[in-house]
Amino acid sequence: MSFREFVGESEKIVHSSVVSLGYQAPENIEWAEPPEKEYGDLSFRIGFQLAKQARKRPADVAFEIAQRAQEITVGRKYVSAVEAHASGFLNFRLNHVNFSSDVLDNAVKEKYGRIEVGEGKRVLVEHTSVNPSGALHIGHMRNVAIGDSLSRIFSYASYETQVLNYIDDSGLQVADIIVGMRYLGFAEEAPAGVKYDHYARAPVYVEVTKRYDQDRSLAEKRNLVLKQIEDRDPAIIDFVFRVTDRILKEQLKTCWRFGACYDLLVYESDIIGTKLWEDLFTELKKRGIARLETEGKLAGCWIVTVKGESEGEDKVLVRSNGVATYVAKDTPFAALKMGLVEDKFFYDKYLVQPNGKELWRTKTFQGETKSSPVLWNPEKALTPIDDRQARLQRIIQYILSQLANQNLKDRYVHVGYAIVSLSPKTAETLGLREEESGEEKRVITMAGRKGIFIYGDDALDALKRRAMEETLKRNPDNKDQGWLNDVAEKIAISALRFSLLKQDLEKIIVFDLEESLRLVGETGPYLLYTYARASSILTKSVNEAKESSALIRSGVLLNCESEIDLIKVISKLGIAVEKSVKMLAPKWIAHYSYELCESFNKFYETNRVLQEPNSELRGARLKLVLATQNVLKESLSLLGIEVLEKI
């Protein structure tokens, strides 16, 4: 039982009342929670929606419907009263005894808040997709957090969800790494104690990009390496695959540490090897989607015309020298996802991930099977990529729609988000040089080619060190290093994950170490602290809380404001899940989790629980604590945050 059922019951009453009065019910009966409690628990705009049809003032319509609604009693369990307001709104009040009792009976069970909107429909989520040329920085970590959380949320909403990671092992950045190791003297092996993907990012990649400005001949070497990779030249290809595979495995370790796992790795080298682009390009030319430009500065280029693009209508797919552009490289995989090209891959098991899940990879030749471990052509494909790629994604979406002869806007979806910057203090703490970070700047914008970035690993390590210090202060006598390490690690992950997920996707995040670790306010550690507080209450009383479930109609006893408010918040997890699915935004789960913690702490500060002398009331309150603990655990899991019983 959830708040959604109260909404549904209220909607039926409104609909029946409207129809019985001879009006045509609107397709969407609009509702919202009133800003003030004096107006009840739910408000409908039905007076405004029907005013024109009824040729009456909204207030008169609302009063008319309220009078009829009072007569409808069949099927009414959670609605206690219906009232019209002079403003034209129709307000509903909860039957708190029935509502609270049913919510708590269900909220102590697993998977409370799970909804069935997906109905088994298939969703592919492609995220991370970082070139195997260096370690993930904190901007990449926002992509991982968004993609992983969306996959969890869609699964919770009853979608069949699978996760992809695109490995661009044939692009410019990979070529840069190879140039550094082949022509600039950088060793293939990293120095002792240095994580391999960190070494590849800096010094190798950063130094190579600086040298291009100093030595023009290096650009020719990069073009040569790119050609060798594309042709799978035996003189270099084994070396390339060896280096990129080592980098990839280190990247995956970072993602696993952060709680993200995958179903399939799709390699760009296999897209090249199976000639997916050539086949698609032939089809694009045949269908007239791609056309050869014969005049102007784009003469000799193959272009696609996308109407309505404010940046310019024409986009080059293949340059006059025959080199495919980024959009041409990304389109074949997008077309494969949507079932618009033939799957020519073989597939191999790559490794087993820390959660026990097998990770597969594509192969050009001689794979273990031709049967794909993921199902192409899903009902929806989600691709989180930062907003700087919005134009590219719109063009790809247009090409796919032309191929499919239908608008795929709602099926192939770019989930855009803004970049991550750093506060100056955090940049200094994590080792950015003063001359690069700029002391007087309010935010530090990262730039990979200039070496101005913070590794995701380093951010987590710094958070973990701070969390360990705080944990030791709170537990000075605890010598269990395993427990201390686990607590500090989970606090660090919660701090980074929550700070990356709680904001609007279009909002630039200014990440600050100190802010993200606070134990008060809207932070990951605050959520974990609240869960641990609930666990502490239940430690010696969990049996009493569970036993009370069968003996007490909790709603009879839990009738003070803070208790009722907490029960209402508990009941809304499903609504937060539904909103996150509809808006493609994990922030609604983040906001819900924070609201739940705030409501619980207010309840605990204004009510006795363990010290309550009335055994039945104590049992009812313990049941409320148990429900809060259970639902908070569910909501945090959707954000990829593991709970702690003690901090």
Description:
- The protein has 647 residues and is an alpha/beta fold.
- Among the domains are: 3-94, Gyrase A, domain 2; 122-269 and 345-378, 3-Layer(aba) Sandwich (Rossmann fold), CATH 3.40.50; 424-514, no CATH class.
- It has 25 helices and 17 strands.
- Strands 11-12-7-6-5-13-14 form a seven-stranded mixed β-sheet, sandwiched between helices.
- α6 (172-183) crosses α7, α16 crosses α17 and α22 packs antiparallel against α24 (587-606).
- The longest helix has 24 residues, at 615-638.
- It is globular, with a radius of gyration of 28 Å.
Kindly list the characteristics that best describe this protein:
Gyrase A, domain 2; alpha/beta; 647 residues; 51% helix; four-stranded antiparallel sheet; single chain
CATH class of the domain at 122-269 and 345-378: Alpha Beta
Give the overall shape, derived from the CA principal axes. Answer: globular
In the sheet with the most strands, the strands line up as 11-12-7-6-5-13-14
Query: How far apart are the termini?
Result: 32 Å
Gyration radius from CA atoms, angstroms:
28 Å
Q: Give the helix proportion (percent range).
A: 40-55%
Low-confidence stretches: 434-439
Kindly report the name of the CATH homologous superfamily of the domain at 122-269 and 345-378.
Answer: HUPs
Overall pLDDT, averaged?
92
CATH architecture of the domain at 122-269 and 345-378: 3-Layer(aba) Sandwich
Structural class: alpha/beta
